[in-house]
């Protein structure tokens, strides 16, 4: 018996899938065989993604869910369970990022980021966890960041939120892993997406970033997807409560 990375017949939910890393993760999970339920605040942002997955021979279904609306999280995931019979994988990708010197952070800045990056993520874990615990099986992958373990200037709130993601991941793993539900996190470095292109296409900014990455480049979405598929697959059945850093060595320094 060899390790299996195949996700055939698994039902996966990806939050924040309308753009960026979430968009790519949904396609990668579908390519690995999963039936993918993609969620975002608006269904209109998911139409193209669903079409692309289906055109490539995959299975996808769009579901409106704003992770800031705790009540909607529960009803949306229960709707997904009723429609497809189970939820095997949750990828908690929905998140916000912002640059603010700490002295300029407002209460609104703090509350907005925490509502998505930490509060919303927790209640997605809780809603999916209730379903998975009844099933006796599940894989939860939380999107963290290298900024959860090292400080990044002008990212006080973001770093705090992602540090919280790591701690939630550990506690949920302790509570649920003995009941068949593994909980892990993936922590990428700077990753090139349409949303980060404006900064990373600036040669000076890019060089400043790459100088800190021993691998000599920023990440791409496939780098992140490889880690997510591993943690979502049977190959990682003995892995829980960990943060898998996809950072090219940034945090090894």
Automatic annotation (TrEMBL):
Q: Does the keyword Oxidoreductase apply?
A: yes
What's one GO MF term for it?
oxidoreductase activity
Ketoreductase domain residues are 10-189
Q: Does the keyword Oxidoreductase apply?
A: yes
Which keywords does UniProt give here?
Oxidoreductase
Please give the superkingdom of this protein's source: Bacteria
GO BP: bile acid metabolic process
Pfam families associated with the record: adh_short_C2
Per its UniProt record, what NCBIfam families does this chain match? PRK07231.1
Record-stated family: Belongs to the short-chain dehydrogenases/reductases (SDR) family.
Give the protein name, as stated in the record. 3-oxoacyl-ACP reductase
């Amino acid at each position: 018996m060899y390790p299996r990375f195949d996700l055939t017949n698994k039902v996966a939910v990806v939050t924040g899938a309308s753009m960026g890393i979430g968009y790519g993760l949904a396609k990668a999970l579908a390519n690995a065989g999963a039936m993918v339920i993609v969620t975002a605040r608006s269904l209109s942002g998911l139409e193209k993604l669903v079409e692309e997955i289906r055109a490539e021979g995959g299975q996808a279904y769009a579901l409106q869910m704003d992770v800031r609306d705790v009540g909607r999280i529960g009803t949306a995931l229960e709707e997904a369970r009723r429609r497809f019979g189970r939820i095997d994988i949750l990828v908690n990708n929905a998140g916000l990022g912002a640059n603010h010197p700490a002295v300029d952070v407002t209460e609104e800045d703090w509350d907005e980021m925490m509502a998505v990056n930490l509060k919303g993520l927790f209640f997605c874990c809780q809603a999916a966890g209730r379903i998975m615990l009844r099933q006796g099986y599940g894989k939860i992958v939380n999107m963290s960041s290298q900024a959860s373990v090292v400080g990044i200037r002008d990212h006080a709130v973001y770093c705090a939120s992602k540090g919280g993601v790591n701690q939630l991941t550990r506690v949920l793993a302790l509570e649920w892993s003995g009941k068949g539900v593994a909980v892990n996190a993936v922590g990428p470095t700077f990753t090139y997406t349409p949303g980060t292109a404006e900064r990373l296409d600036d040669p000076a900014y890019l060089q400043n970033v790459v100088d800190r990455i021993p691998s000599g480049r920023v990440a791409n979405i496939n780098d992140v997807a490889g880690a997510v598929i591993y943690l979502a697959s049977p190959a990682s059945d003995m892995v829980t409560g960990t943060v898998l850093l996809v950072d090219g060595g940034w945090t090894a320094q």
